[in-house]
Write a structure and sequence with these properties.
The structure holds two protein chains of two kinds. By secondary structure, chain A is an alpha+beta fold. Helix content of chain A is 35%, strand content 16%. Chain B has two domains: 5-41 and 56-164, Uridine Diphospho-n-acetylenolpyruvylglucosamine Reductase, domain 3 (2-Layer Sandwich); 169-262, Enolase-like, domain 1 (2-Layer Sandwich). Classes of the chains: A alpha+beta, B alpha+beta. Bound molecules: flavin-adenine dinucleotide and FE2/S2 (inorganic) cluster (2 copies). One FE2/S2 (inorganic) cluster is lined by residues 38-41, 43-48, 58, 60 of chain A.
Chain lengths: 156, 264
């Protein structure tokens, strides 16, 4: 067993969990933050993307024990009273259908916009498509997801 | 995933002691090892996480060489100012591995320890004539890669860094598998002090390899057209659902040309 302390969505949490607990399990089963979805559990689909110390990672491919002391943001932690501009943009642009991939899409979207802004690079449509390499959507055909991220990038 | 004990050693000496048991394994970014464990293709008793050992990650320039800590992530290599300045082709390779989330976790040491036949980094290490530094010795790239998923590493040996002498120029081009983004074929060319070196990944049945014919042609003339006259045999190349050996042999030439054209 490992005793894990993290800051999740701004709140300090502490839990004792088995060493083989994935971050996705820690969030969903131990903290009951089920907004983070597990689509494939094989590191392919990106539905489980969360931010750890400011970087987007696949939570199904990290051990919670290895992230003791980390600061984690999940989809539940984005809205601050109002929807986050990325959430609003997905809503405005019909950027989702069933919504299963959406938490990961939004967390990846926020991450890419922040990185490109920090590096002073332009997040073009081609760049967004390339950046979404690790996020799979079975419904939308991606066009409206790309549009949503473009709108949010202009507003963030 | 099976039960496993997780350890986070504070020093290389502690890590070595923890790896003394046969069933213990090094954990770095986990982007290969954790999926492998979920599939029950690996069942280590203990995971020894080397990422927080002081000195294991980061990039420095020492005696004219680029020294990249084994636990440096693909994203860090892609964005590092020293890598961009001295070996821009390596930064470009790192920026094309997998996807952003994989690049935020996966490490250079993990990639070359694993030596996946379709991984990107092995081609760079071999073409750049790099040195693999471990907890006990330094291994030349030509001696390090020993076939698919096989390396010169002994049980429990820990890669601590990779040392690279900046080449006069280098370039990498890959034809990514459309689903996985791993290399169907990737070719790294480098004008090094030891002549032009060309390493091919993704194509060989025995993993990454150097190509004599391409090296000779590009040593005579370092230009994309020099590749035209080279014959690349399909013997020993992979055939699978993604492409047969003849297709891969063709791609080796196309990627070699693109790599030379991109060389910087
Ligand atoms: C969706 C996806 C897409 C990917 N696409 C690509 C791609 O396009 N190109 C590509 O090259 N790779 C790709 N990868 C693999 C990725 O680059 C991995 O990060 C890398 O292969 C392994 O690095 P790691 O740090 O994650 O190692 P881990 O998974 O932690 O370890 C891998 C192996 O190396 C050993 N090891 C790790 N570090 C050391 C060390 N310092 N010393 C000794 N042994 C060590 C471990 O014991 C284990 O056997 C992809 C992975 C995923 C999940
Ligand atoms: S659930 Fe993690 S990548 Fe699919
Ligand atoms: S909206 Fe259904 S999977 Fe993307």
């Amino acid at each position: 067993m490992a005793t894990i302390s993290m800051t999740v969505n701004g709140k300090a949490v502490k839990r004792a969990v088995p060493d083989n607990t994935l971050l996705s399990e820690f969030l969903r089963e131990h903290l009951r933050l089920t907004g983070t979805h597990v689509g494939c559990d094989t590191s392919q689909c990106g539905a489980c993307v969360v931010h750890v110390d400011g970087r987007a990672i696949k939570s199904c491919t990290a051990l919670a024990a290895s992230l003791d002391g980390a600061t984690v943001t999940t989809i539940e932690g984005l809205a601050n009273g109002d929807l986050h501009p990325m959430q609003k943009a997905f809503n405005d642009n019909h950027g989702l259908q069933c919504g299963f991939c959406t938490p990961g899409m939004i967390m990846s979207g926020v991450d890419m916009v922040a990185r490109y802004k920090a590096e002073g690079r332009e997040l073009t449509e081609a760049a967004i498509r390339h950046e979404l390499e690790g996020n799979i959507c079975r419904c939308t055909g991606y066009h409206n997801i790309v549009k949503s991220i473009q709108q949010a990038a202009a507003e963030m | 995933m099976y039960d496993v004990s997780y350890h986070r050693p504070a020093s290389l000496a502690d890590a070595k002691a923890m790896l003394a048991s046969d069933d213990a394994k090094v954990l770095a970014g986990g982007q290969t090892l954790l999926p492998t464990m979920k599939q029950h293709l690996a069942a280590p008793s203990d995971l020894v996480d080397v990422r927080r050992i002081p000195g294991m990650s980061g990039v420095k320039v020492e005696g004219g060489k680029l020294v990249i800590g084994a636990a440096t992530t693909h994203a860090e290599v892609a964005g590092n100012a020293d890598v961009l300045k001295h070996v821009p082709s390596l930064a470009c390779l790192a920026a094309g591995i997998g996807d952003p989330a994989v690049r935020h976790m996966g490490t250079i040491g993990g990639s070359i320890a694993n030596n996946d036949p379709a991984a990107d980094y092995p081609s760079a290490i071999l073409a750049l004539n790099a040195t693999v530094v471990t907890d006990r010795r330094e291994i030349a790239a030509d001696d390090y890669f020993q076939g698919m998923f096989t390396t010169a590493l002994e049980p429990g040996e820990i890669i601590t860094a990779v040392k690279i002498t900046p080449p006069k120029s280098g370039g990498y081009a890959k034809f990514p598998n459309p689903a996985s983004r791993y290399a169907m074929v990737g070719v790294y060319v480098a004008q090094t002090g030891a002549g032009v070196r060309v390493a091919v990944t993704g194509a060989g049945q025995d993993g990454v390899f150097r190509h004599d014919g391409l090296e000779a042609a590009l040593s005579a003339r370092f230009a994309p057209e020099a590749v035209d006259g080279v014959s690349v045999s399909a013997d020993g190349l992979l055939s699978d659902i993604h492409g047969d050996a003849a297709y891969r042999a063709h791609l080796v030439k196309v990627m070699a040309k693109r790599a030379v054209a991109a060389a910087a």
